[in-house]
Write a structure and sequence with these properties.
Elements lengths: L5 E2 L11 E12 L4 E10 L5 E3 L1 E2 L2 H9 L11 H17 L6 E5 L5 H10 L2 E5 L3 H8 L4 E3 L9 E7 L8 H10 L1 E12 L17 E2 L2 H10 L2 E10 L9 E9 L10 H12 L2 H11 L7 E4 L3 H9 L7 E5 L9 E2 L2 E4 L3 H5 L3 E4 L5 H10 L5 E4 H10 L2
Parallel strand pairs: 6-7, 6-9, 7-8, 9-10, 14-15, 14-18, 15-17, 18-19
Antiparallel strand pairs: 1-5, 2-3, 3-4, 4-11, 10-13, 12-13, 16-17
Helix pairs in contact: 2-3, 8-12
This protein binds zinc ion.
The site of zinc ion (ZN) has 8 residues, from loops.
Length: 391
């Protein structure tokens, strides 16, 4: 069988047509097929994604992988265990793993899945193209063949360690991955990092159709319905995948429209109506309800306090003043209200104190308790959080 070359005329990361031939050619001798295959490389002028400029075709690539018996040692080596620790340390910091369902696509001999099974009690599924690999994986304690899963094929975490660089149709593949993810699920990716052109960048190899830089990878994910939640880079000389720079990403599905879609403005407006306007509506409701006619103190004298005064009906309520620990503000008059030191609250004994800062809330509440105040204290954080609760 011979490759059926087709020129790749667009960038599979950002969809740009501004693709440049790099003038880099390799003649790959493929020992398993006893064939030499010429490959050229191209770069996207817009996102700097580097890729094989001619695709050898799905059929040829599948043929290549079928005829490519890999070294698969059932027992993980010390170096693999070390790699699993490093990858897991990142993953576990951002994703709940305990007793969750995980799937690794391209699970090799299963070292990483065994680690997740033993360390976190994960129900671990594998997917592999080769029958030989699936036989090795099926013989590992705690690992299950994803193909044999009969109930709903959904998992909490999909793992793609050094897989994405081998995939031609990235969009379809990432859509498939999203379709098997349970609600609230996460995707973990590790690939070589081609963000820098330096001594820690991988060599070209036949199997790697894609050379991702970080901005491009994040963009590709965003374009295919994912949001990047965490990212790290690592260079480890003894890493079994590569001694060069790798990038790790945790991503989750997002319902926001992709870049380029004007619907993003509506998405933001819907968010802003809850996050930025909801608390002012809540204040108006409070003033019309339980706080009607009651005395109210505002704390501190800063921008959210001013926003509340200018954009809610607070200005027409029985407001005693603003209270702030900043001596530079005390004694001044702002928006028709006097700024007092907090100790004055003891004298005025307001029915309500509204806290209009998102930081220091606990410290502020403790200072009120220390003053012996019995006022009802409501914070903007509570009001915002209630807005989401009723949204
Ligand atoms: Zn591009």
């Amino acid at each position: 069988m011979n490759p059926t070359f087709s020129r790749v005329a667009h960038c599979r990361v950002c969809n740009s047509k501004r693709v440049l031939d790099l003038g880099v050619r390799r003649n790959y001798y493929l020992a398993n097929l006893d064939q030499t295959v010429p490959v050229s490389y191209a770069i996207c002028q817009d996102c700097h994604f580097i890729f094989q400029g001619e695709y050898v075709g799905d059929e040829y690539l599948n043929h290549y992988y079928r005829q490519s018996p890999m070294l698969r040692r059932k027992e993980a080596t010390a170096f693999e265990k070390d790699q699993n620790e490093r990858q897991c340390e990142f993953l576990a910091r951002h994703v709940a793993l305990k007793d969750h369902k995980v799937l690794e696509i391209g699970a090799h001999a299963g070292a990483f899945l065994c680690h997740l099974y033993q360390r976190f009690g994960c129900t671990a599924y594998f997917e592999e193209l080769s029958d030989e690999a699936r036989a090795v994986l099926a013989s590992q304690e705690g690992l299950h063949d994803f193909r044999a899963l009969e109930d709903e094929k959904k998992v909490d975490v999909v793992i793609l360690r050094h897989v994405l660089e081998h995939i031609f149709d990235l969009e379809s593949f990432l859509n498939y991955v999203r379709s098997i993810l349970a609600d609230g699920g996460s995707l973990f990716i590790e690939v070589p990092d081609w963000t820098h052109f330096d001594a820690h960048t991988d060599p070209f190899i036949f199997e790697h159709l894609n050379q991702f830089n970080t901005a491009g990878l994040v963009h590709l994910l965003r374009r295919t319905g994912w949001q990047t939640e965490a990212l790290e880079k690592s260079i480890h000389p003894d890493d079994p995948a590569t001694p060069n720079r790798v990038q790790r990403i945790v991503a989750r599905p997002t319902s926001l429209p992709p870049p380029g879609d004007a619907a993003i403005a509506d998405s933001f407006r819907a968010f802003a109506a809850v996050q930025y306007d909801g608390w002012k509506t809540a204040i108006n409701n409070l003033l019309a309800g339980e706080a009607a006619g009651k005395s109210i103190a505002l704390y501190p004298a800063s921008h959210l306090t001013f926003e509340a005064l200018t954009e809610s009906r607070l200005g027409q309520a029985k407001v005693l003043g603003m209270f702030d620990i900043d001596a530079k503000k005390q004694g001044r008059e702002i928006l028709g209200l006097k700024v007092y030191p907090p100790e004055e609250l003891k004298v005025q004994q307001p029915d309500f104190i509204l806290i209009f800062t998102m930081g220091y809330e606990r410290e502020i509440r403790e200072s009120f308790a220390a003053l012996g105040l019995t006022s009802r204290v409501i914070s903007i954080t509570e009001l915002v959080s209630n807005s989401w609760g009723s949204a």
